[in-house]
User: Fold these one by one.
Assistant:
Number 1:
Amino acid sequence: MFDLDNWQEIWITITRNKWRSVLTGFGIFWGILMLVLLLGLGNGFRDGIHRTLEGITPNTCLFMAGRTGEPYHGYRKGRFWEMNSHDLARIRQKARTVDQIAPVLYGAYTDKNVVRGMKSGTYNISGVLPAQFVVYPQVVMYGRLINDMDVQYRRKVCVISPSVYETLFDPGENPLGAYIRVKGIYFQVVGVARRVIGGDDVEDESFYIPFTTMRYTFSRGDKIHQLFCTGKAGVDAAMVEEEVKNILREAHDIAPNDDKAVLSYNVQEMFQMFQSLILGVNLLIWIVGLGALLSGIVGISNIMLVTVRERTREIGVRRALGAKPMTILKQLMSESIVLTFMSGMLGFVLGVFVLEGIARNMGEGNELFAPPSISFNMGLLALFILIVSGVAAGILPTLRALKIKAIDAIREE
Amino acid sequence: MPIIRIHDLNKTYYGASPLHVLKGIHLTVERGEFISIMGASGSGKSTLLNILGILDNYDTGAYFLDDLLINNLSETRAAELRNRKIGFVFQSFNLISFKNAMENVALPLYYQGVSRKRRNALALEYLDKMGLKDHADHLPNELSGGQKQRVAIARALIARPQIILADEPTGALDSKTSAEMMALLREINRTDGITMLIVTHEPAVAAATDRIIHIRDGVIGTDQRNTHPVISL
């Protein structure tokens, strides 16, 4: 059934009116091109978000002290309160959902607070426990991270980020063992590390020292500025959040129904938000892309209807000479599919080239966008969509053609 | 055994006002006859031709083609029968404009599933018979009217049909070419023994046939033998 003649017939019909075929095919070409470009960019967006979220334990919660929202135990509403180091012990003791507890105590933030020889910089100094690096995984570039011994002996050591290293050290210089002065006190560099999150994160200007060192050496008192808690495996972030909040409320004379006192932030919510954002973007892409494709299909269908009308006599003659309805059906369907497929493939290939071009020129991308890409499966899907489109576009013209009777050819106008 | 037997054929077109076109046609055609069908426009001769060519259905009566009852056939079966048993020659030739002469002639065999090589070889043979071998690769618009009609006749003959239905075959030709065409049809009738039915309104064309049937108001008016057929157009 697929001998050379069939293809010749199809080819002749398509090329008989070249411009019409080109313009018709353009609809499908454009539709697929748009779909591929949008999907590629959508993938870039998704990958970008995933890359940003990668390396955060999904059920991590962040807690900070705010002002109370309800009067309680004789305290007025709007009271300031602070988390303190006893809270760590309480949470460790009571909370059953919590896995890692990572308090952060910030140093006083003053201009040029970090100095090494002639070089200096302004950084937010964080006093942390080793658990901090579970919450925010790090890529160690030199040396090591802060460990339990550092915390226990209140060692004056620090772990700095690459951007801090670049400011305070000459390129290629070994930072390990070097001393950095922080507000008059010297700290020894034991490691350079960057967060896993977000690739080359220029925002990452972290300067870590042991939690206890910060507390005692800089006389920061008993308080904690921020508290990260990760849940045990399989525990919902919302449960961790609620449990820790309740413990904090109880310990600090805060009403159990006070939602304002403990400020909390739950990464899972952010995850979910991004997930639905990605879903929404994808949905939009498919609607727009398939819409463009649909208008292409309508275009092809329309032109083919005109073609069938023009070919009434020819089809009638074929019928008189013995063409069966099935033969006519095959012929027209093949025409539709070939036209759709060719222009669609052209659009697809061009789309992939454009995406590749964008990806090449984009490098690593930024927080929200990774280089766009399109998967092999997506290619197969596009192929499938094209064939379905071809069939869909051919249905109406074919039905019209099947209604043509041999008599119509003989009837003299 | 007659090739065509028609018994009390009736056909009505149901439009805004029903039109009773064929009102009981009785007709028997023997194999190898050379017949012309005449009639004024609206007499029903085209309808009769359509029914004979299995292009249209009839309401009541019976039509046997080669002893086969033709009645309410499926489109597929009708196409098959048309392809094998009937050759069509049209007034306006109805060649497919984007196919050359050889491909046009070969078309019926294409629908039989004959291989490209064989049907093209056969098409060349038939074109040769029509004296058009040199024009095999010409497109229809590069041929004269007479040449086109000869290509059409070759196309009608290639599937070795039992009857040829010609609808005003000389209608678009000048008198000299018309005369040649009638001579050609006569020769095919004589040498191959193919039954010819020619619909015409030209008395001169009818005069060239062996039997002249007049259709008048949906019935057969006269049916006369022409013992001295002459081609003088």
Number 2:
Amino acid sequence: MIYHLISKSCQRLNKPNLINNLIKSQKQSIIYSSSSSSGSSKFISNKYFTTTSNSNNNSNNTTTTTTTTLRQDEIDFFNQQSSDWWNPEGTMKPLHRMNPFRVKYICDRLKIYNEKVSKNPIHLPLEGLNVIDVGCGVGLLTESLSRLGASKVVGLDAAKNNILMAISHASFDQKLNENIQNKSLNYLESTIENFYNIENDQQFDAVCSLEVIEHVDNPKQFIDYLSKIVKPGGSIFISTINKTFLSYISAILGAEYIFRMVPVGTHHWDQFIKPKDLESYFDSNNCQITDLKGLVYNPLTCEWDFTNDLNVNYLLHAIKK
Amino acid sequence: MLRLINKTINKNDLIKINNSKRFCSTTTNSTINKDNIYDIIIIGGGLVGSTMACSIGNNNTTKHLKVALIESSKIQTVEQSISNAIPEIRTISFNNQTIELFKSINVWDTIKSTKRVNPFNQVRVWDTSGFEGIHFQDNDIIDDGNNTTAMGYIIENNIVTSSLLSKVKQFENIELFEQLSVKSMNDYNEETIRTTSILPSVTLSNDQQLHAKLIIGADGGNSILKKQLQVPSIGRVYNQKAVVCTLKLGIKQDNNNNSSNNNNNNNNTLFQRFLPTGPIALLPLANGYANIIWSTNLMHAQYLLELDDESFLEQVKDSFLKSPSTSNSSFFEIASNLFNLNPKGLSGNEIYLPPIEGLVSKRASFPLRIDHTFNYTLPRVCFIGDASHLVHPMAGQGVNLGMADVKTLSSIIEQSVQSGYDIGDAMMLKRFEEIRKPENLKMLLSIDTLFNLFTNNSIFVTGLRNFGMSLLNNISPLKNLIIGVSKGESILKFK
């Protein structure tokens, strides 16, 4: 049934390469479910599928249900992007280049606020931590978090193709392969609200949702859910794009239309969020922003760097009281 | 595609079978077990390879990585390397950046303790046109133990290598494979490495098989790894050979400069003269020795190698001090007067060369070429140093470029560990290439251009060259800039 669904969606996308990739990832996910016990197959079963996964017919679903934070067209868009996502020189190049910086930021911040992290060995700073990556895409950040030793990592994404690609890619790496087998690394196809409704006992030391909230329809509700799954004293990391004139120039005009760094339609300026708004959302959930840091991209050298200017890309760290 | 997957699965099964075989058969060489899987294999324990190993072992973030360093020759101890009072024939000019790197990995003290380190703070460059040439002079050498300000240091290759390798032996996670070379790369396939969890492996000359997440090729200009992987590169052969030897210098009779503090060790000037056949350089060594590197055409090199010691020395002195020949240059003189190319009418004898006492080594030679590899990285493979870029030795920058590679690659590996990346991650290695390739190419092209400029004897080019040199010699900010570059400092800083 899953296979049928994918081939259907691929025909729609008219991308011959994609279908091959997906058959491959499909095949591999089957290998997982058969090689490990029923526990692992749970994650690729329909349990976590949202109502939105049968995408063709019910695109109006999102507007009628109040609990959904995601828009269907966003999910569709990222379903299309998944095949090229893991290509470090492809359409997601800026994101690939950003990843080492944001991982380092997360570790550095956790070192200050989490006693475990400060005592862990340098190369395994996240040992003993439960971490979730909400909107994990194809697992860029999730893989890093898993390699850094987190005892449990959950990668959550509403786009099914992303999850299949993420599982497939993890199998290229022996360490991650082991982590999937012993369930310290899990990929789930789900929205945050579905995840919370089904597993509401999950309490994470760190909740990461990087470059996600600008694709979410109801950011306030999204933050509400993030705060619900984090432990008291735990950390929430958000990175997104500010809603400023400069961000329109650089993230939409520059990145999508002039430099063609990312596909047109990746971002919608009206969905960008000001740090002030995020602060008020966090406040109402008893969370406090402890740090805000700007990130700046140089399209010529393809390198990111930290800055104090929050006008375009920024990262924030919040603590639940 | 499905077939491909099946194939991969089969391969995985095969490994399992191999593993199970281990328990019933005695031939365990081809099996994968924890013992022969390394994080990093460094091929080549020369200057660049052993610095790479030290750099990984000395960094708190990367010291947990399991490293194999493979060196084909026998490794000397530091004591062995200084047992002969006469310096080795292969000497290297290290710039300050490289010295900083040695300090940061804690080997500089070992190297210095051999007392075979010679700083230089003056460079004299001139040619055969009778022109005064160019004189770079940095501040006096101030050595207060920690900070030495010299333009660079001339040290024997084997002293530095043995100091580095003795340091390598102190790291518990670095394993040294001595007198072993790489026999094969075991069907290395880019596609398989990129899209499966299979790690590349090398078979050593003793049939031992090692697997690694990252294989670093630091095995020099004739890299075996590069040949095995059929990595394409471009370059050219200069049709030149460098003739090298060691000299003992006499004591200077410098009466004019009695007040100088370091009268005993006044051997701090590097001389280089561009002859029509190629550059000859005298590199000052510690304890009154010097190294000659004479690049010349193949015939002349052969002739120089066959001469007896005395005639050879005569040739060396001549080549440094002989006045420019005026036989064929009536036109040159006209041009010279017209453009005032040689305002002081110098012959070249004014260049003060220390007296040469005698030859203390055999003469050796090596062919000269320029070579550059387009891809510094393949999946889980990375080339550093001469393996990816080979230059003419006239600027003494080859090893220093390799050391800059080491610095960048170790910081990339450090970042990979910190940000939870596989150390063989393609994007991270690509970043290494992006940082180093422009720098290396810049230097390669500058040196190649210099070579073409100085081996050209046409009046136009000599005129231009000398005009340029006289400009250089008289504009001190520009000269300081060049001194900076030769010290390895970057002129343009973006940040």
Number 3:
Amino acid sequence: MDIEFRNISKQFQRVEGGVRQTFQALSPISFRIESGEFFAIVGPSGCGKSTLLNLLAGLEVPGSGEVLAAGKSVREPGPDRMVVFQEPGLMPWMTVRKNVEYGLKLRGLDRTERRERAMRYLRKVHLSRFADAMPHELSGGMRQRVSIARAFALEPKVLLMDEPFSALDSQTRDLLHDELQQIWQETRTTVLFVTHNLAEAVYLADRVLIMTAAPGSIKKIARVPYSHPREKNSTEITDAIRALHDDIKEEVNRVAAREMDPEWTPEDSKKRERDSFTLGEGI
Amino acid sequence: MSQGTLSPAQPAGNGGAGIYQNIATRLGFLLFLVFAWQVATMVTDIPSYLLPSPLEVASEFVRVVGDGTLFHSLRLSLSRMFIGYGISIVGGIAIGVLLARSWLVKQTLGSLFLSLQSLPSICWLPFALIWVGLNEGAVIAVIILGALFSIAITTESAIRNIPPIYTKVGRVLGARRVVLSRDVLFFAALPELIGGLKIGWTFAWRSLMAAELIRQDILGVGNLLETGRQFSNMPLMFAAIFTILAIGLTVDTLIFGNLERIVRRRWGLEK
């Protein structure tokens, strides 16, 4: 399904020092996502990238402009658009299988169809053995795989992922990158993937949109011209990450400069980088 | 939240004793208390109208069970609870939902309920007697005034504390309004909701006992206490107080305690 963001902007009301202020989260922004494309949005925190995803999901309404999914204006959540959030959001009172089945039940599938489909997608994430377990019996990575299975089970035309792996440890994340890549190749679902991790975006996506610090706008849209499946540590991928690194760094520093004491300069963190200290991603 | 499927050793404040050992120890202690009580009444000359022996209490207990007094009183008290607490549950949950959903209701009724909740509900009995009359209705009104506000307020907080992720996930999966509330929000709020019903029960039961104690004209287990006092029947007073205690414990631990534990375990809130 092709997606179009057309002149989208978004404002929030927020109280600062007791004064109600309008905060411009997104300046008017337009771009398209092709059908079957894996499209990633990367940006510093607070740049409005999750807002863009929520707008397409139908969980928020734009301040101006409109989001078109297959030519139709998005107003509310719909079965063609499924979301994987940063938290798995599994319902703790249902078994793993019932969690995957719930959306199918709302869609009116009968019991055997539901069960069969839930099991098929649980097998895709290699968790069919845990179908009758309760969510709290699973690890964080396993729960997020269930959440991915739940979204794919509804066979949406577009899958929206909002920093889906950022709460996981790096080994689990690597594993899930490969699983996601594989399922995506099988289904060729359109994917909108929001992250603050540039390496992840470049590794997975066909195109990467880099956003500026708030009010969010498009800094660059870069194509990653390599076919899937990709090798994480291949020179093509690492070169592509390096090529975009400065763009994202500039925006991260801009956010940092707003948050830190006035005497801070990006040079301070460069020094530490050289000493092989790592800064928090995305700050 | 635990990251693994392996559960760590249970941290226990009892040096690792098992559940049966805990129960045995508690029972043993109770038996010891009763025994000490019996011995104390035998070796001292405290008169029976001040402190009857456990045996006297037991025989009085057998008498009031035998002639039906106890069950009749219990039936009256519990049927008042059934009506009063039942109305409080239905009304309290409905008001709680309104408090959580409507800013206007929260600002108006919400602040009123919060201040009314700090008033012991038995203070309403004189009003209820005049407004409702010298009848069952006045006692039931006191039960409702004791339980309704606390159930409403805890229901509101249970709804407000639902993590927003469940609403988002539910909406994305296709649940809207009534279906969302029935399938998702209700269960997400359930652990806290049960806690609210438990507090409501406690308030209701205490209010009823106070009302029955004050009212001379109605029967009930609370009233048995007062009857015992009027006839200088201390064993009856003890039998009544143990009955009241037993009901409180049964409902608190057997019904609400177990319900809470089942839900919390299933939800993964405790192991």
Number 4:
Amino acid sequence: MIRRIVVMTQPRRLLNWLIPGIFFLAWLVVSETGLAPPYLLPHPKDVLATASSYLFGDVGQAAYAGRFFEDLTASTTRVLLGFGLAVIAGIPLGVLSGRLALVNHLLSTTINALRAVPGISWLPLAMVWFGIGIKTTVFLVALAAFFPIYLNAEAGARQVSPTLLQAGAMMGVRRLRGTFAILLPAAMPSIITGLRLGMGISWAYLVLGELTGVTNGLGALIMDARMLGRIDIIVVGIILIALIGRLCDVGLHYALRLSFKSARRIP
Amino acid sequence: MKPRLQIISAEHRSAASPVVLDVEQVSKRFVTNGSGDITVLQNISFTVRRGEFICILGRSGCGKSTLLNILAGFMPPSAGVVRLNGRPAGHPGPDRCVVFQEDALFAWLTVKENIAFGLKGRAMTRREKEREVDRFLSLVGLTDFADYLPAEISGGMKQRVSLARVLILQPEILLMDEPFAALDAQTREEMQDLLLRLWSELSHTIVFVTHDVGEAALLADRVLLFDRAPGRIKEEIRIALPRPRQKEDDGYYALCRSITAKIKAL
């Protein structure tokens, strides 16, 4: 199997960072020339100083100093809990709905109607239901991540060629084993797309879920900084969420490739 | 190209061998909304003896693929019975294996894993299974491609894998649904040669659906010529040409011409 693992050459690897690099340079230029005043966009070196204090400083040394690991743990826990719930509900329901007309009829109207409701409109209701704290955030993350996971699992399961299932049947594969040995692997590319979208959206809704009521977490950090007008902290928060989001995506990808043979054919 | 192996004559085989497949008065109607039912197959009856090579020949839309799906157990007939070794054939299973026209390999498994797929759950040791897989890999000439994924091999190679993964299960009857129709002429000839060679080595019973007169004349002991829709057996043509058959032979050429004339007359 080693033969198929693509070794990325150095120039290609650099390509991954080309656009972030250009953004950073542009940022540097507009800050250095004074094109963007610090109250609109802080200078990279100020942001870097803030980031280093936030990440590595001692608690109490300055505002926000050393809070990163607490925030990271809190946010990651919420994201993983919400995402996990979305996976547990989304994949089985999606696959069933893609294969069984009855389940599809039962679910599609409801799910497609709920899908149209913007996440933010759930926030007040979630706060009434779950109170202020982790439950509200997890609920919002799970709700938001559910839809892409469900819809992609459904589409993937529906598009599995009947010939593949017939081939399984003639080789003596009964329904249950067929589901795990043929249906799910064949639908895997779509399922993975759904999981990656769901993971991305989880981080987006985390910030929404942490808008009110919680004191820790990256979303809470950003909201808190907005109140205090600490735009540098907001920028630090945005960059950290982007980096962690990308890391989660890569981690998810590798975890899937490690666990499922059928995930390995996706680059 | 290797010369085709000598195969025992059709007469010898059909006279002595027991009946494997017995198709009795099979009809298939599809219910449509509004415009009434469509009859696709009408009163199909024929038998296949052990070791025979039967071609079902007909124009597209004559129901020959539907018949193959019924034989495989993928859909039930509207009327009639399909018997395998005297017993009604029910759900699909490894006793009746299909080689499909399109690519029906498992894209996430390697060539070797695809061929081993049907052996899962069989009462064999791991070593025995590996030996069987290796044997069939070499029978279809894919030993060097064992660890490739289906997306990495050619159309002809894919059909070799399709063949190997069902032959390894030792089916009572091998059902082939225009398996070489999507291949280029050169590859198709190679596959026909391979199939005949495997057939002579492993002596399978084969029902082969095709619309290609030349293919039927080259492969079959008997050709069941299908009428236009609704599908009925118009004529049974017994091919007495000695094997190995050569496309350059006058006899072969005359046979093709006479079958083509019959199809045009339908």
